[in-house]
Structure formats: structure tokens, C-alpha cells
Amino acid sequence: MADRVRKKYLWAPAVLLLAGCGQHQAASPRVGHTSAQATATAGQPPVVAWTGLAAIDPCTLLDPRDRSAAGVSVLGKPKEIAGARACDWTVPGTFGVTVTLSETDGLADLEVAKKTATKTKVGAHPALQVADKKAADGTCAVLLGVGDAASVQIDVSNTGFSDTPLACRRAGTVAGLVEPKLP
Known about the structure:
With 183 residues, the chain is α+β, with helices and mostly antiparallel strands. 17% of the residues lie in helices and 28% in strands.
């Protein structure tokens, strides 16, 4: 997974799960595009197009029924990863899942090593499944495109960093549960 690099972020699921012990900053409240924002004065920064992800709390993307279906027995913990809002569910001794919302990077903006990525579709959203099968490190990610300028990343890391196919099945399950809730 270390091959997968975003233009703005380096994503390594194993590091994300291990880094969960640090402090996180609460996400600031976000609002959608309004006419007041559209008529911003010349001295203000330009308004970034609202993608719909701004209204979503990543920790609400897996409700109790979804967590049960995915084998997740714990509540998610909100976190911020390189400026993006995320939620981390770590099942002790088994695996961890991190769902990250990027309101600025669509699938086309992500730099993914071609040898590790497989194009796919999850529900109505285009997607990439990313796993380094040669590394066999027990990590896998599913990246969901949300329009042209946003994406959702689901990272799974198995405890012991083994069984990449299982990590990909888990990432696919979580992606299937999250996808219907996306704009």
C-alpha cells in the first residue's frame, strides 16, 4: 500500500490504524453552498464547490446494522487525516477500518500505482480497489469517486498484516454499505 500516493496525502492504512492513538481535531462545522456564499466580496477567498460530502459525518456511515454486517463490533472514532475528515473503527485482535472523506480530490486526482489498482464500480459510483498482492501485507483499500472532485477512501488493515484477499473482501463489504449513503 505504500505505493499508493495521493497528490496531497500519503495513505498507508497500517500507519493510519497505528496513528489512531494521537489526538484529533474536531471537524469544523461545514455548510453547503448558499446565495450568501455565492456573492462573496472580492477580498475573500473563492468558494469551493460543495460536493455533498460536507454534510456527512464519516462516523455515521456505518450504523449498528452495517457494523454487524461488516464484522465491526466497536464504535468509530472521528479523526482528521491530513486535513480530511475520517472515522476509524479498530476491532482489537482482528482488523481495522478507516473511512476518509476527501472533498477536494476525485478519483482522477489520486495517484495510484497501476500495478496495485483495479477499476471497478460499487453501486452507482466508480471505484478503484487498491492492494499490493505481492506485498501480501493484509491491507486493501476501495476508493469511491463522488462526482469529479470528491472521493471516499475505505482502508482495511488486518491484524498481523496478513491475508490481503480477506482485507479486500472486508473493504468491499464496507464500501458496499457506505456507497448508498453517498451523494
